[in-house]
Design goal:
The protein is built from six helices and four strands; from the N terminus they run ββαααααββα. The strands form two sheets. Strands 1-2 form a two-stranded antiparallel ribbon. It has a two-stranded antiparallel sheet with strand order 3-4. The longest helix is centred in the middle third of the chain and has 35 residues.
Length: 183
């Protein structure tokens, strides 16, 4: 397995911590400016944008907690919410190309492409930490040796070595016990 880094030279945990910290500062500034601007008499789009920035600030705080605690499942909310922007950018760009609206797609590409690529890179770094943390959190005792499904749809789970108490009784002990009572 290769060494995981952020930007090629920062170790992955401090790199993800910096991603979360920078996003928390940015989203907090956006939310603070929106609050100081005033929340009354605004449109639905303003409240949707405000709520989305609040959710991003909250998930970046959860990202910081996840990096500090080493719990990989806490990385998932940030990944899901942060993937919305690049996904919407690529869908919007694709729909503009399909409608042959090259002027708008060019403007969209000039104004949002770099931000979408940066967010996508940050998501890939956080996902790499998720994979590393999830792989390292599995212990030898928790790994199933074999998990197969038979042709009849029955799942057979076999978990490592069995002790002598878990084995079925031998043939000889079954025969002697049943013949003892059959006379």
């Amino acid at each position: 397995m290769r060494d995981s880094t952020c930007l090629g030279f920062i170790p992955i945990r401090p790199g993800v911590f910096m991603i979360g910290l920078l996003q928390l500062v940015y989203e907090s500034m956006i939310v603070t400016m929106a609050v100081f601007q005033g929340l009354d008499d605004k449109t639905f789009g303003f409240y949707f944008d405000f709520g989305f920035h609040c959710a991003l600030a909250l998930t970046s705080l959860v990202l910081l907690v996840a990096v500090g605690s080493g719990v990989p499942s806490l990385l998932v909310p940030w990944l899901c919410l942060s993937m919305i922007f690049p996904t919407m950018f690529f869908l919007n760009l694709l729909s503009r190309f399909i409608m042959l609206d090259f002027k708008t797609s060019g403007d969209l590409f000039l104004h949002q492409a770099i931000a979408a690529i940066v967010v996508l890179y940050c998501c890939s770094v956080v996902y790499e930490l998720y994979v590393i943390t999830d792989t390292n959190s599995i212990h030898e005792d928790d790994i199933l040796v074999a998990c197969t499904t038979t042709q009849y749809g029955v799942t057979s789970l076999y978990q490592g070595q069995t002790s002598a108490d878990d084995l079925p009784p031998s043939y000889q002990s079954v025969v002697t016990n049943t013949t003892k009572y059959t006379i």
